[in-house]
Amino acid sequence: MTNALSLEGVHTHVGPYHILHGVDLHVPAGQVTMLLGRNGAGKTSTLRTVMGLWPASAGVLRFKGQAITAMTTPEIARLGIAYVPETMGIFSELTVRDHLVLGARAARRAEDLDRTRLDWLFGLFPALHKFWLHPAGKLSGGQKQMLAIARALIAPCELLLVDEPSKGLAPAMVMKLIEAFTELKRQRCTVLMVEQNLAMAKALGDRVAVMDNGRIVHTGAMAELADDEVLQQRLLGLSLGVAA
Amino acid sequence: MTDSPLPTGSLPTHPGEVALPGARFDARPLWLLAALVLLAFPLIGNGASWLTLTAAGLAMGLIVFIMASGLTLVFGLMDVLNFGHGVFIAAGAFVGTSVLAGMAGWVGSASALQNLGAVALAMLAAMAVAAALGAAFERVIVRPVYGQHLKQILITMGGMTVGEELIKLIWGPQQLPMPMPEALRGAVLVPWFGGEAAAVEKYRLFAVVLGLAVFAGLLWLLNRTKLGLLVRAGVQDREMVEALGYRVRRLFVGVFVAGSALAGLGGVLWGLYQQSVVPQIGAQLNTLLFIVIIMGGLGSTLGCFVGALAVGLMANYTGFLAPKLALFSNIGLMVAVLLWRPQGLYPVR
């Protein structure tokens, strides 16, 4: 199994703070890897380091074998890594249409967007069609999340980084997201997803990595962790409920 | 078409029937402008003078807008406070003066075409020099202090002082006359009620037309092109635009250079408006520019436009009504606006 992304001994400093303490993480191609852990464990920082937003101070990051440690954020994105940040990164003044045009680097106007892909995204997230010309700032939290994901997917990507897509969303919305990601999974899309919602992690994850204090403390199959309540208690301090 | 969940036809071309609260354009700052113009009328009392002053105010406001538009985008995009922006104005004004002086034949000619040709050449030369200066300024002075506001303020102010001294070295420390071409001299008489006629200087009309053209061009660029989309997105969230694979740094250099060129153009227009140029022109206008962009909402082009018009009108009205208050009036206006909207007229974030 080849790794799309691998991190070896990655350290990250932000200002005076030492946030990542030697992260070793491998994201296999064509699978969904869940990154779990308590608040402050370093999950978001790991994604930001991959994107070059907080450059690693030590260690090596590779994408499909190529070292990306010293690359700038735009260079990394151009390799085919799409990113949905925890804050969603929605431009409140811009319309839904503008977001998708921005997501597709080759498109100059909405008419240049790949219609097949766009229709697929409209099918996943009908609200985006409904509010096509509305400023994104007026969308609900769930709709913004869908827009952020659609923006990441409108152009073909090799790796999708998603930071807590279910954060703050109503259960019905979370179900919709799970549906959309299940569809992505069927397409063998490589995903690295940070999640706190364990039902979502269980439904989507092939692999799992658990972080604590800026390190990876456990890696394995998601199903394995989902079935082992003792392990869940030890790693996450809570339980998924094995029966479900 | 908006209610079909799986559209296959063309994309929607209008916002659809779903009304979202507050999605409408915020027109209240424009009412502020209208109120300013209407309020001045009874105070001035004389319709003809009011019209003359309003035309002068609009001309001044539009020139200030041309100068300030680059500054506000530079701040919005990269958080750079450039207190040296005035040096591009000064460079543009002096280059323009030299070109016009060198083309005295065309400037004094009876042919309006030659007159306007001389002005156009002066503007192009001013923009080219200001753009080149802007590119060097960005590379040498601004780039080492990204993300450090205090250092930006200190070093860009220093850069402007150096620029001002260089201008004195090349053109001398004295005030230089800015020759006004024949075709733009004099005034048009606009008939007013009661037989009175208001005199509106031709050059002011010219400045208004040019200023509106620049504003329209900027709006088109910002709202109708991908480049503009990137600038607007970058002003709101630079990091996200970079994470989408766009080189915001390069975009910023482009905006900085274009903004410098516009400042150079504004310098020529301002010199012609005052009919003379002094080496301190940059420092004099800097304060005004910052009043305008703070009032408008840092980073907002529309806010900068409304702010510039308000400042231009205010300066001319108070200059007529209470000359001693002229300098204070713009600061007073800014204070009032910020009490009303602490983030400026059109906040961007």
UniProtKB/TrEMBL annotation, chain A:
Residues 5-238 form the ABC transporter domain. Gene3D superfamilies: P-loop containing nucleotide triphosphate hydrolases. InterPro entries: AAA+_ATPase, ABC_transporter-like_ATP-bd, ABC_transporter-like_CS, BCAA_Transport_ATP-bd_LivF, P-loop_NTPase. PROSITE patterns: ABC_TRANSPORTER_1, ABC_TRANSPORTER_2. CDD domains: ABC_TM1139_LivF_branched (cd03224). Keywords: Amino-acid transport, ATP-binding, Cell membrane, Membrane, Nucleotide-binding, Transport. One of its GO terms (molecular function) is ATP binding. PANTHER family: ABC TRANSPORTER ATP-BINDING PROTEIN, HIGH-AFFINITY BRANCHED-CHAIN AMINO ACID TRANSPORT ATP-BINDING PROTEIN LIVF. Belongs to the ABC transporter superfamily. This is ABC transporter ATP-binding protein.
